[in-house]
Amino acid sequence: MLKSGFVLALGVAGLLTACSGNEALDPAAICHVGVYQTASGSIIDIAPVAGADLRWRALDGQVGRISAGEDGLWSGTTGWTDQADPARFDLGECGTTSLTIEGLDGYDGVAERIPLDIIDTEFESDGLTLAGRLVLPQGTQPVPIAVWVHGSERDSALDWAYAQRIMPAQGVGIFVYDKRGTGASGGEYSQDFQALAGDAAMALQRARELAGPRAGRVGLFGGSQGGWVAPLAATMSDADFVMVSFGMMVAPTDEDASEVQLELRAAGYDDEVLARAAQVTDVTGRLMASGFTDGREDFVRLKQQWGDEDWFRAIEGEYSGQMLDAGVTAFKFVYRNFFDAGTSWGHDSTAVMNQVEVPVLWVLAGQDREAPPDATRDILHQLIAEGRNIDLVEFANTGHGILEFVETGAGRESTRYAEGYFRLLGDWARNGRLEGPYGDARLPEPVVQEP
């Protein structure tokens, strides 16, 4: 969720490698971007991929990547794998409003582009000008609107956020915006949750203004890192609801600690080693949260005590492995000079959630390695027991993104979204209720009213 993508290779002076966030889009491909509906009512979205490829997402969770063939048809692979997918698309020429699908169960035949009402805009936040977009189902009636709150990605939401089509296709308006320092928005990229929440609150205000009489209930929808930001933004705004997917209720430092525990357990290490690793991540977390002032002596002591052991060298996490390899001084130098985005390492999600007075939907991925769910699940259950208005849903067999996967020698390969996930989001956004079933989703226990 927070990984910077940095690599530290320390020689005499050190070497830094970083990756750029935004990639070019091919005009000949993006002219087909849109959301479509078959005669039977099935919905499928066509989204851009860097270069000349496209990605399709079906409302039932099927997904694939396609490229144009010499015969003019588009085909490709399943999910994010290299496995050939039988689905083939005739997208026609740029400017056409329909496409033809074959080989995709439940979607074969002609699909027509769903017309949407789209307003591009700018709004001010914290002295910055941010670029946004309101997308509504066509019509005149009020509709619910969700403000999309980014994860940690540096890409342009205006270009890449598929939610701006797949939610309006279900009758839910959405407001997307390029967060500060990305896409067409001003400022510098940041992971300061207070600043990002302020931006999200201003985005919600702008969405209400633009929608006017078409604004029904208006809320915030955050994925991944957005799960820290959206509830905080709700305390700064007049949001009517909050939706969070694959987010965490623990601090970012605890995310690192949870990842280390999962990685070492998966590698076969026992509880004694896991307890030692917890001591290590407690120290690295203190260092991150304090700006590298608290924990230096303990860091040196633990490296001297366990630094030659295999489990110690196997630690990765979000940042702990890098810090252990590099040492505090070198890690601090590279982090501060190249990667420090003001991350709110000590963020207290429970304190924030206790201030949120509106209904909350929280969707967990049961096998999430990037946002391990166990501690979050426990905290949310406690908040629910205390009377907080939270609907907790879990897709047990999914990883980050609510994506199903297969294990390979190279790690996980995502194959599709969980069946029912997109419908669940649409249903809850429309009326605050879950009308499942939604595939294998574990839904909230029904509330038993006392006589």
TrEMBL record:
Keyword hit for Signal: yes
Pfam families, per database record: Hydrolase_4
Sequence intervals crossing the membrane: none
Annotated signal peptide: 1-24
The Serine aminopeptidase S33 domain, residue ranges: 147-254
Domain of life: Bacteria
UniProtKB keywords: Signal
An example Gene Ontology molecular-function term: carboxylic ester hydrolase activity
Alphabetical list of PROSITE patterns matching this protein: PROKAR_LIPOPROTEIN (PS51257)
Protein name: Serine aminopeptidase S33 domain-containing protein
